[in-house]
């Protein structure tokens, strides 16, 4: 569910970024502030149990690697990168996560897992190369765009691979209320000017609706579901669900009339889920 939401967000987020009515940093701050408020309110009424003071620095680091840096790099990268490059760099996450999880929490790197990742990787690249990218507005990816896409993928992979023990320790609401609070604090020094200078009056109703989707669904709801899943799903498999994003994005683009869902895309989807199945059947750590 979380990555299906992110798949729709790949299309809507691009519209918001290209509208140039609000800066990426200001948009992230709005997301962080809304989510922090929502999770603190939920925590207050649900008696979430809180967190130990000694773990606050770990949560702050998790917030930086899992929320702040991935979201900021993505919001900037999509304005200077082609959809093909955005999609292909997104496929690297499970590969990075597999090795980070091996180092950080001892998740085995098995032949079945490597085969599953490579099968899904092939399917996704095939899907991306057979998609329509004419409406993007960016003809080539800049060097900074490549750096941001790589940083985005590595950062979120480190979050998935390193912080699973911390996420399993606390309730999801406890983790998220502190994570978004730290993300908000990190972003404020960089976003104050953007928040004050944003062209709110020039925002179309479409952009406002897309920002609302971004804040409510792609932030509050999706970032509640991911750590909930992390409690029982191994890091590499969590990352593999990232491959749902371009599939949903392709379907959503077809519904909006931007693209068509051809037999090549159906074949690509088959390979993606075959790879996820293989990883799911691979040996877990004791």
Describe what this molecule looks like in 3D:
- The protein is mostly helical and 286 residues long.
- It has one domain.
- 76% of the residues lie in helices and 0% in strands.
- It is built from 13 helices and no strands.
- Helix 3 packs across helix 9 and helix 4 runs antiparallel to helix 6.
- The mean pLDDT is 83.
Separate helix tally? 13
- The overall number of domains is 1
Determine the N-to-C terminus distance.
28 Å
What string gives the helices and strands in order? HHHHHHHHHHHHH
Helix content: over 70%
β-strand amount: under 5%
Q: State Rg.
A: 19 Å
| Average pLDDT over all residues | 83
Assembly state of the chains shown? single chain
Strand element count = 0
Shape: globular
- What does the main sheet amount to? none
Low-confidence segments, given as residue ranges, are: none
Strand-pairing-aware structural class: mainly alpha
């Amino acid at each position: 569910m979380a990555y299906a939401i992110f798949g729709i967000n790949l299309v809507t987020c691009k519209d918001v970024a290209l509208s140039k009515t609000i800066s990426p940093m200001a948009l992230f701050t709005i997301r962080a502030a809304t989510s922090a408020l929502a999770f603190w309110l939920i925590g207050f009424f649900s008696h979430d149990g809180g967190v130990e003071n000694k773990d606050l620095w770990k949560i702050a680091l998790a917030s930086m690697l899992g929320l702040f840096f991935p979201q900021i790099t993505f919001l900037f990268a999509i304005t200077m990168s082609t959809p093909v490059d955005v999609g292909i760099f997104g496929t690297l996450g499970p590969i990075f996560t597999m090795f980070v999880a091996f180092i950080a929490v001892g998740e085995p790197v098995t032949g079945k897992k490597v085969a599953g990742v490579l099968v899904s990787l092939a399917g996704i690249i095939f899907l991306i190369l057979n998609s329509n990218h004419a409406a993007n507005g960016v003809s080539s990816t800049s060097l900074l765009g490549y750096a941001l896409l790589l940083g985005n993928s590595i950062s979120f992979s480190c979050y998935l691979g390193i912080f699973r023990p911390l996420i399993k320790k606390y309730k999801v609401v406890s983790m998220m209320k502190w994570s978004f609070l730290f993300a908000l604090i990190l972003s404020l020094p960089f976003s104050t000017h953007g928040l004050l200078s944003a062209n709110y009056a020039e925002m179309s109703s479409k952009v406002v609706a897309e920002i609302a989707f971004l804040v409510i669904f792609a932030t509050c709801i999706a970032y509640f579901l991911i750590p909930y899943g992390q409690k029982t799903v191994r890091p590499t498999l969590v990352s593999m669900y990232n491959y749902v994003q371009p599939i949903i994005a392709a379907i959503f683009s077809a519904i909006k009339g931007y693209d068509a869902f051809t037999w090549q895309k159906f074949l690509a989807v088959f390979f993606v889920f075959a790879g996820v199945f293989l990883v799911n059947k691979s040996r877990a750590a004791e």
